[in-house]
Write a structure and sequence with these properties.
Strand content: under 5%
Radius of gyration: 23 Å
Largest sheet: none
CATH superfamily of one domain: MFS general substrate transporter like domains
Number of strands: 0
Number of helices: 7
Oligomer: single chain
Shape: elongated
Order of helices and strands: HHHHHHH
Structural class: mainly alpha
Length: 236
């Protein structure tokens, strides 16, 4: 439940920032990116509820973690030129994975508790989910900031105003600005600022890729813990 909160809230925090700051989406479009994932969870939950009575809930939790991890690895292939559905499909797949986590985790955690302790168990699970979400948001935002700085320095080390490729790109931007009626002095400074802005944007994009990749691996690294969980009562 801790990992579920970690993955759920951290990805929900990352995607809106990504689509709004890098892709230029509005708040409404950002919400539309997240909505299909919620719908996929809603569709799958009744089916998962039926499956719990026929399959070991621990296996279902493992399947959910694998699907969620795969969806995050798909997000780690995002770039600055992708379209709406390229962003949305991994979110839909993630929703299918999360659906296999909510109910089975409750079954695994609560089925072996005495009736008088179920209330305490439920409260503890809610606490762990919220703690996971808090830590997840804090960790991914920290990773995002640190990796942005790293990629900014790395990419910046390859840009030299005396480099022919850099000069050619700068000249292209300069010519476009002059063609729009901007004076040459202002166009020169704007061309340099544009190159720097593109560097920052790509560095930020690379940082998002690293962050999605890291959260995806967390889903897989947690799988061995399932071996320590008790088999739910009444499981086939």
């Amino acid at each position: 439940m801790f990992v579920l909160g970690f993955v759920l809230y951290s990805s929900l925090a990352l995607l809106p920032i990504y689509v709004q700051t890098l892709m230029g989406y509005s708040a409404m479009d950002s919400g539309m990116v997240l909505t299909p994932g919620g719908i996929s969870v809603l569709i799958m939950m009744p089916f998962v509820g039926r499956f719990v009575g026929f399959f070991d809930a621990r296996l279902m939790v493992g399947l959910g973690l694998i699907i969620t991890g795969i969806s995050l690895f798909q997000m780690s292939h995002f770039n600055l030129d992708i379209g709406f559905w390229t962003i949305t499909w991994p979110r839909i797949i993630q929703g299918f994975g999360l659906a296999f986590l909510f109910i089975p985790i409750n079954v695994v955690s609560l089925s072996n508790l005495p009736k008088d302790q179920i209330g305490n168990g439920t409260g503890l699970m809610n606490l762990m989910r919220n703690l996971g979400g808090s830590l997840g948001i804090a960790l991914v935002t920290t990773i995002l900031a640190r990796r942005t700085q790293f990629h900014q320095m790395t990419l910046g080390s390859h840009i030299d105003l005396y480099d022919p490729v850099t000069q050619e790109r700068s000249q292209q931007i300069f010519n476009n600005l002059v063609g729009q009626g901007i004076d040459r002095i202002t166009a020169k400074s704007m061309a340099t600022a544009s190159l720097y802005g593109q560097l920052l944007k790509q560095a930020n994009m690379n940082a998002f890729v690293d962050t999605f990749w890291t959260v995806g691996w967390i889903c897989f690294l947690i799988l061995p813990i399932l071996l320590l969980m008790k088999k739910p009562k009444g499981a086939h």
